[in-house]
Design goal:
Its main location: cytoplasm. InterPro entries: Enolpyruvate_Tfrase_dom, Enolpyruvate_Tfrase_sf, EPSP_synthase, EPSP_synthase_CS, RNA3'P_cycl/enolpyr_Trfase_a/b. Catalyzes the transfer of the enolpyruvyl moiety of phosphoenolpyruvate (PEP) to the 5-hydroxyl of shikimate-3-phosphate (S3P) to produce enolpyruvyl shikimate-3-phosphate and inorganic phosphate. Pfam families: EPSP_synthase. This protein is α/β, with parallel strands linked by helices and 427 residues long. The protein has 2 domains: 213 residues, Enolpyruvate transferase domain (UDP-n-acetylglucosamine1-carboxyvinyl-transferase, Chain); 208 residues, Enolpyruvate transferase domain (UDP-n-acetylglucosamine1-carboxyvinyl-transferase, Chain, Alpha-beta prism), CATH 3.65.10.10. It has 13 helices and 23 strands. It has a 4-stranded mixed sheet with strand order 2-15-17-16. The protein has a 4-stranded mixed sheet with strand order 4-5-3-14, with helices on one face. The structure holds shikimate-3-phosphate and phosphoenolpyruvate. Shikimate-3-phosphate binds next to helix 6.
Length: 427
């Protein structure tokens, strides 16, 4: 159902707590299902993607209870998992699909995994190639490049592997498979990607050796249940950061936002563009978090490339939008990974922002944006991609006319109360 947004150049004021981090929420369910005992998760993201992860592990026989404030996982470890009689449906979630492959590959049973039409187009051989080197038996379309994927679990062996792409999903799938592999697995990561898996392995009692972009994990380690405190998702917070920056007379506080350094590229970039942003770090039991206070700012263009890209990969649609309001040129390079997310996010961002009058052009591995430009109303397509839907909604705040979004429901993939919170800040 389409949604029409017509803001009257609003200012944003107030304080909100964005929903829990999607990457950490996925991993809390996975590790709670691997560990022996009762794991509790506070601040879990009740978004579609993370609910897909819960659904898949319930089909493996893991007991998972969900209330508004707490998710409780009771498991006797991977050995207690049951061979699923149903297809494991991963919905729209690349993280669920790819990390589960690492776990299913080392079980003692057969399983089949499939997702939605977006997942069916996303590359899986980047995961299956290293898992096959470990001895995994995985079949799928085009020799395992695409779902549906059939996995015959087996005993795996350790590998020494250099990641061909800066992907935390590839790294994490190998680490999860390595937990039950014979020997020590070594992963070389030329460019750092988010390290939530490494942190959570240690949180659940495993020993992980990390130095100079090399990660070593001994197989056979047992994990023990734990409590997980999930901070707010900085990838969701990014949209509210951008909203405050590009509107006039705004001041917004986002409480308890995760500031894991492998995820804070967005903060580095907006500060370099001239953003007025206060960061007050909090004491937490889990990963680092902070209260962020963002005020309307005059922004200037910048260049975003190299090692910075994996630290803000999901924020690039939002960054492209704020670049349309910045003085000068913004160049985004080395971001070819965007072409294999839920959509081809380079093509989609350029097409959609161009509809609103943005001066933006696509390159093979990124985009170039000239600003500032006045954005007009338009009929925006989300392509079923939550981050495109949110980009369109934030763009509507500064558009001269009404903005229609074709599938606003897709935003619940990662931010189920997005419109509720946006309305709270604009009223
Ligand atoms: O490991 C994760 O939780 C994620 C890793 C990233 O994907 P890649 O690892 O494919 O870059 C990111 O785009 C995704 O939203 C979540
Ligand atoms: C790409 C994303 O997630 P996933 O890879 O889990 O689908 C995202 O959240 O932008």
């Amino acid at each position: 159902m389409a949604l029409s947004l017509a803001f009257k150049k609003p200012s944003l004021k107030g304080s909100i707590q964005v929903p829990g981090d999607k990457s950490i929420s996925h991993r809390a369910i996975m590790f709670g299902s691997i560990a022996t005992g009762t794991t509790t998760v506070e601040g879990f993201l009740m978004g579609d993607d993370c609910l897909s992860t819960i659904s898949c592990f319930k089909k493996l026989g893991v007991q998972i209870d969900v209330t508004e404030d707490l998710v409780t996982i009771q498991s006797e470890g991977e050995a207690s998992w049951k061979e699923p009689s149903e297809v494991l449906d991963t919905g729209n979630s690349g993280t669920t699909t790819r990390l589960m492959l690492g776990l299913l590959a080392s079980t003692s049973f057969h399983s089949v995994m499939a997702g939605d039409e977006s997942i069916a187009k996303r590359p899986m051989k980047r995961i299956i190639n290293p898992l096959r080197e470990m001895g995994a038996d995985i079949r799928g379309r085009q020799d395992g490049q695409f779902t549906p994927l059939a996995v015959q679990g087996t005993q795996l062996k350790a590998i020494d592997y250099t990641l061909p792409v800066a992907s935390a999903q590839v790294k994490s799938a190998i680490l999860l498979a390595a937990l039950k592999a014979d020997g020590q697995t070594v992963i070389h990561e030329p460019i750092a990607s988010r390290d939530h898996t490494e942190i959570m392995l240690e949180h659940f009692g495993a020993t992980v050796n990390r130095e100079n972009h090399v990660i070593k994990l001994e197989g056979g380690q047992k994990l023990t249940a734990a409590h997980v405190q999930v901070p707010g998702d900085i990838s969701s917070a990014a949209f509210m950061i951008g909203a405050a920056l590009i509107t006039e007379d705004s001041k917004v506080t986002l409480t308890n936002v995760g500031i894991n350094p492998t995820r804070t590229g967005i903060l580095d970039v907006v500060e370099k563009m001239g953003a007025i942003i206060e960061i007050e770090e909090k004491e937490t039991a889990g990963e680092r978090s902070a209260d962020l206070t963002i005020s309307s700012s005059t922004l200037k263009g910048t260049e975003i490339s190299g090692d910075l890209i994996p630290r803000l990969i999901d924020e690039i649609p939002l960054i492209a939008l704020i670049a349309t309001q910045a003085e000068g040129t913004t160049v985004i390079k080395d971001a070819e990974e965007l072409r294999v997310k839920e959509t081809d996010r380079i093509a989609a961002v350029v097409t959609e922002l161009s509809k609103m009058g943005a001066n933006i052009e696509a390159t093979e591995d990124g985009m170039i944006i000239h600003g500032p430009t006045v954005l007009t109303g338009a009929k925006m397509t989300s392509y079923g991609d939550h981050r495109l839907g949110m980009m369109a909604a934030i763009a509507a705040l500064v558009a001269t006319d009404e903005v229609a979004i074709d599938d606003p429901e897709c935003i619940s993939i990662s931010y189920p109360n997005f419109f509720e919170q946006l309305n709270l800040l604009t009223n």
